[in-house]
Write a structure and sequence with these properties.
Layout: E1 10-13, H1 17-28, E2 33-36, E3 48-49, E4 57-58, E5 63-64, H2 71-78, E6 83-84, E7 92-95, E8 98-99, H3 102-124, H4 131-134, H5 141-144, H6 149-152, H7 161-166, E9 174-176, H8 180-187, E10 193-194, E11 201-203, E12 209-213, E13 216-220, E14 222-225, H9 229-233, E15 238-240, H10 245-253, E16 259-266, E17 278-283, E18 287-295, E19 300-306, H11 307-316, H12 320-333, E20 341-346, H13 369-374, E21 381-383, H14 396-413
Parallel strand pairs: 1-2, 1-14, 2-10, 7-17, 11-15, 14-21
Antiparallel strand pairs: 3-4, 5-9, 6-9, 7-8, 11-12, 12-13, 16-19, 16-20, 17-18, 18-19
Helix pairs in contact: 1-14
Bound molecules: flavin-adenine dinucleotide.
């Protein structure tokens, strides 16, 4: 692949959801755009694997969260995509050798509701403290708090209650037939991307910007950076002049946490668990996974591990996360169940060189960091990506909206 020779108005670094939506909007507004992507494919953290299972498997984002206020949900509806709106309940909770009774599962759910309420309430107050500090005292606390990391991608002691409060939560978590990655890709099929093209340097010391890659350099008036906060923190891209201290602080206050997925495809003849049912499985204090059955109303189950435990499993090597989930399935359905598991796969987002994690979380005290991260430098360097969103952070729709925001910022300074 060659770099386009003409100097574009805008270079976009990264072809995930935010880079794609920025490019589409800029093109519509009359700008010339070049999108540079480090990987061999577009989509970033929102891609669908169509080859492993009979059912498409989203390796990254899959749910349209807060569906009633999610612009992508409206677009999916307009495009006539079939949507799966059923939510998952806790059906089986297996904690350290004991399967909870239905009454205990109800208590588990009740504490879960009160736990998020308390984190939100504390977050609304001026003092930004860790989610851990906001947890109501209860015999359920130790067990149920394990549900925090799969949402925030990090454990309660390192996540900010103010960031939880700032997220605009609304009803509905919907899945799309064909996968969310497929939908995002199709939505942006008119955007050209130079793949296998990692940007190594951005020089914004002059009037415009100069971007360097292994296949040459390119000059533009503006650049939009969409890479994850951990990629910025790891300095995969060198800036001239260096990013200001306040920007670096914001980046470091918003690390990219870990949520890994484990796909388990069951024999269609196995009918013991269905769409909307799940297993929660705990060993010790915090070795925890959730397994949701019946994705897209098929025999695909998806397990989730998160936070420090997910990092530990990634370090243990390929198969460790899958084995843990299978232990959870065995604990509930008996050892015989393994003969019905036909195929498995697992993600390793921490080790993914071009994202270094799954999605951003905010450290306690990082209340203002997302606004600072999104701030433009010198009217040339623009920042998009899920982590730059105050109310839709850590999501695909947040990434989508952040790209449009950056495109509109550039459009505004040209009007
Ligand atoms: C396991 C998992 C489950 C998730 N589940 C959900 C969910 O159900 N619902 C939801 O809404 N969200 C979910 N998310 C979050 C969602 O996927 C992300 O927030 C969103 O996709 C991020 O998009 P982005 O454009 O900000 O970043 P990215 O998609 O990461 O795009 C940035 C791009 O920049 C590229 N890049 C990196 N370095 C360079 C470089 N030097 N030069 C050029 N390109 C570079 C990367 O390869 C990448 O393609 C999930 C994420 C994961 C990982």
């Amino acid at each position: 692949m060659k770099l386009p020779s003409a100097n574009p108005d805008v270079v976009i670094v990264g072809a995930g959801t935010s880079g794609l939506s920025a490019a589409k909007k800029l093109k519509k507004n009359g700008f010339s755009v070049v999108v540079l992507e480090a990987k061999a494919f577009v989509g970033g953290r929102c891609i669908t694997d169509k080859s492993t299972f009979r059912t498409p498997f989203d390796i990254g984002g899959s749910w349209l969260h807060s569906a009633v206020i999610n612009p992508l949900a409206r677009l999916a509806e307009e495009n006539g995509i079939s949507l799966h709106k059923k939510s998952w309940d806790w059906t089986w909770v297996y904690s350290n050798g004991t399967l909870l009774t239905p009454q205990q599962v109800k208590e588990y759910g009740k504490y879960h509701t009160s736990m998020w309420l308390a984190a939100n309430q504390a977050g609304a107050e001026t003092l930004d403290q860790s989610v851990e500090k906001t947890l109501p005292q209860s015999p359920w606390k130790k067990l149920v708090k394990n549900l925090i990391a799969p949402m925030l991608s990090a454990d309660p002691d390192v996540t900010s209650s103010a960031d939880v409060y700032q997220y605009a939560d609304a009803e509905g978590d919907w899945l799309l037939d064909g996968g969310l990655g497929t939908f995002i890709r199709n939505l942006h099929s008119d955007v050209n991307v130079v793949v296998n093209c990692p940007v190594s340097k951005v020089n914004y010391s002059g009037k415009g910007v100069k971007i360097e890659t292994p296949i040459g350099s390119i000059n533009a008036k503006y650049v939009i950076l969409t890479v994850s906060t951990s990629v910025l923190a790891a300095e995969h891209i060198k800036f001239t002049p260096q990013l200001p201290k306040w920007k670096l602080e914001a980046i470091n206050l918003l690390p990219t946490g870990v949520l890994n997925k484990i796909g388990l495809e069951f024999d269609p003849g196995w009918q013991e668990a269905h769409q909307g049912e799940s297993v929660n499985y705990l060993v010790g204090e915090s070795d925890f996974c959730t397994i949701n059955f019946g994705f897209y109303d098929t025999n695909l189950a998806v397990g989730f591990v998160a936070g420090r435990f997910a990092e530990q499993l990634e370090k243990e090597g390929v198969g460790a996360a899958t084995n843990f989930c299978i232990e959870g399935v065995k604990a509930v359905f008996g050892n015989n169940v393994t003969k019905y598991i036909q195929k498995t796969t697992e993600t390793a987002w921490k080790g993914n060189l071009h994202t270094l994690g799954s999605y951003s979380y905010a450290l306690p005290g990082a209340k203002d960091a997302r606004l600072k991260l999104s701030a433009t430098l010198g009217n040339r360097l623009f920042f998009a990506g899920e982590a730059t969103m105050l109310n839709a952070q850590a999501t695909v729709h947040g990434a989508y909206l952040s790209g449009i925001r950056a495109a509109e910022e550039i459009t505004a300074i040209n009007n």
